[in-house]
Design a protein that fits this description.
Blueprint (H helix, E strand, L loop, with lengths): L6 H10 L5 E5 L2 H10 L6 E5 L11 E5 L9 H4 L2 E13 L2 E10 L2 E10 L16 H18 L4 H14 L19 H7 L3 H14 L24
Parallel strand pairs: 1-2, 3-4
Antiparallel strand pairs: 4-5, 5-6
Helix pairs in contact: 4-5
Length: about 240
Amino acid sequence: LGAKGGYISALIAHIIGEHGKVTVLDPSSEVIGHISNNLRGYPTVECHRITDTEDFFLPSLNRVLVTGQIEELPDWLSSGIQEGGFAIAPIGKRTSQRLLKLEKQDQHLFETDLGSVVFGPLDITESIVESPSPSEMAEMIEHVIELMNDAGIIENDEKVRLYDLVADLRQLPDDLPPPEELDEPEDHPMMKLMIEKGDWFMKIWPIIQSISETRIASFDSTENYKEDSSHSDFIP
């Protein structure tokens, strides 16, 4: 689920061999058109738009790989996983997710948490970067606290202060306009709240920015594109 450039699909097709089958689903008709052309030499690979699921028969699924952020596994996908099969998916909000193994046993999905991750959105049109809402900022900071704690680069007092900030952010309305829409962005309640935390927060802010950075290149980006790349045929 999530075509990317088609390289993963081709690799899986090689791994499972001629007796297996790979079904690729993606929300973008442009992406599906592109990888269908790239994978025309792979007879075991079929490519479909997600919105076209009613137009083709979804086979029984043994393994499911989700290559982008989703908030939950769709019912039509989870119901297609056969007994003993499983899905690997980054489940969560745009700012942070948990990589979950979801294995079907007795018609129920059982979760195994494989750790904290940050994937770009499954739908590539949603990868445009926007200012986070207060609740999204709170989730992002919580994710950063966890990463910094695992790396041993945060003191206990800083951790307590950041959790206090998370609590304050969750008290703000989540439908506030983004800071960039104001004449004075620093007057935005979320920005004022963080600025009021003083020097200690300003010192730690660059670390939060670098760890939580989720920008990804657009699929049609020409940045760092090399014509002579050995995998250039998989770059849309």
